[in-house]
Amino acid sequence: MSTPLAPVLSAFWDAERSWTLDTYLAHGGYEGLRVALSQDPATVVQTVKDSGLRGRGGAGFPTGMKWGFLPAPDGGPRYLVVNADESEPGTCKDIPLMMASPQLLVEGVAITSYAIGCNHAFIYVRGEVLHVYRRLLRAVEEAYAAGYLGKDVQGSGFDLDVTVHAGAGAYICGEETALLDSLEGLRGQPRLKPPFPAVAGLYARPTVVNNVESVASVPQIVARGAEWFTSMGTERSAGHGLFSLSGHVTRPGQYEAPLGITLRELLDMAGGVRGGRRLKFWTPGGSSTPIFTEEHLDTPLDYESVAAAGSMLGTRALQIFDETTSVVRAVTRWTEFYAHESCGKCTPCREGTYWLKQVLRRIEAGQGTQGDIDTLLDTCDNILGRAFCALGDGATSCITSAVKYFREEFEAGMHTPASELFPPEASALFEYTPTQRERSGALAGSGAGGH
Ligand SMILES: Cc1cc2nc3c(=O)[nH]c(=O)nc-3n(C[C@H](O)[C@H](O)[C@H](O)COP(=O)(O)O)c2cc1C
Ligand code: SF4
């Protein structure tokens, strides 16, 4: 039997003006906050612990346990910071969630803040998504006017202010400590840990940093109880989550389902690979998770099963690539992204991603030299586990996994350009426009020719 969808976060995304407070209230909105305010904060934390909710921002750290790491109150401020920076290639769940149902996040912020004893929460939104920033500002304004935020929330005596902050558009500002530096007005670069944010986070005060989807999952858990949540998913990967299908799929979009669903089941619902073509490779959790192939179609998409099969569940960003795609080209584009987004703080990532990009461009152009594949793997080996933050590790995933499954395509790059083996226009989803480098013929002008 196939796993059915489980629309919770996305339950009324197609309702008329789904983003307004009125629509939210008409669908049972703020019931979770009402329940939370009738309990003491420790009970709310315990409910979230019991639910087994794991952080939806990529690493899958248990949310309730993270809240429990905050030291005992000392009379000073404690903060909740919502990570809404969503910038990883393929990851596209938080932005639709905030566009379609921003009150769900605001309610989650109110409950989480109450649970952890925070009176000032921040939502850090990726800078480029101005439309989301505006929608959140409006949602927060509506929530203040209705007494769900501000002084004495719903007559409970609990005060909460929420600041929506737009970043300037840097992938590294999604890394939680770089985000905190950026929020403080500094250049967004990761901090040395420990101390962890729970002890010394924003303005060196105890801070919880949680992903949008994690926080938005809280209201229904509190309203319906931990057992309702654990009735979905698997034993160690409980609940529901957004699975974002993109790329060569007939009906791309957000499919909310229990964790543990398989790509085969999701593809069945999404009309399969476009044009009846064959699946070549896919990412289970965004561009920083090792790629999978057809052989992984039945791998349950939960944290444990995906890890056992050699990748990571990450952000459940399922990017689908069919047989027309050059794996070398895809990996080169991702690597260009990482080289561009490397913050430069540590040498393995700053230098390593630069060199990976050069070697890959050469292979893509059919100008690879003997030893290039070893150079790639060697460079990855020198980054993995040696970089200051997880961006460096993530940059190596697509390369090492692609060489593992498609080594012959990298070897072909010693003599034949990827564009001859896999014409880009065949895999383009929209009208294909050659890049500047492609127009100028070989990629020699990019520096692809030299070590
Ligand atoms: C380079 C990089 C970018 C990241 N980007 C995001 C992001 O956009 N959103 C997010 O929630 N987490 C992102 N993370 C993970 C955060 O550091 C952090 O683990 C997460 O916000 C914790 O929330 P959670 O426990 O609710 O998952 C990123 C991590 C790295 C290394
Ligand atoms: S791994 Fe990359 S992004 Fe992270 S600190 Fe080092 S240079 Fe910056």
TrEMBL record:
Family in the record: Belongs to the complex I 51 kDa subunit family.
Q: What function is annotated for this protein? A: NDH-1 shuttles electrons from NADH, via FMN and iron-sulfur (Fe-S) centers, to quinones in the respiratory chain.
In the record, what terms sit under GO molecular function? 4 iron, 4 sulfur cluster binding; FMN binding; metal ion binding; NAD binding; NADH dehydrogenase (ubiquinone) activity; NADH dehydrogenase activity; quinone binding
Task: Give all residue intervals belonging to the NADH-ubiquinone oxidoreductase 51kDa subunit iron-sulphur binding domain.
Answer: 328-373
- Give the catalysed reaction(s), semicolon-separated: a quinone + NADH + 5 H(+)(in) = a quinol + NAD(+) + 4 H(+)(out)
InterPro entries per the record? ComplexI_51kDa_subunit, NADH-UbQ_OxRdtase_51kDa_CS, NADH-UbQ_OxRdtase_suF, Nuo51_FMN-bd, Nuo51_FMN-bd_sf, Nuop51_4Fe4S-bd, Nuop51_4Fe4S-bd_sf, Soluble_ligand-bd
Enumerate the Gene Ontology biological process terms.
cellular respiration
Identify which top EC class this enzyme belongs to.
translocase
KW Repeat (keyword) present: no
The organism is: Sanguibacter suaedae
| Name of the molecule in the record | NADH-quinone oxidoreductase subunit F
According to its UniProt record, the EC number is 7.1.1.-
**Which of UniProt's keywords are assigned here?**
4Fe-4S, Flavoprotein, FMN, Iron, Iron-sulfur, Metal-binding, NAD, Oxidoreductase, Quinone, Translocase
| Signal peptide limits | none
So which cofactors does this thing need? [4Fe-4S] cluster; FMN
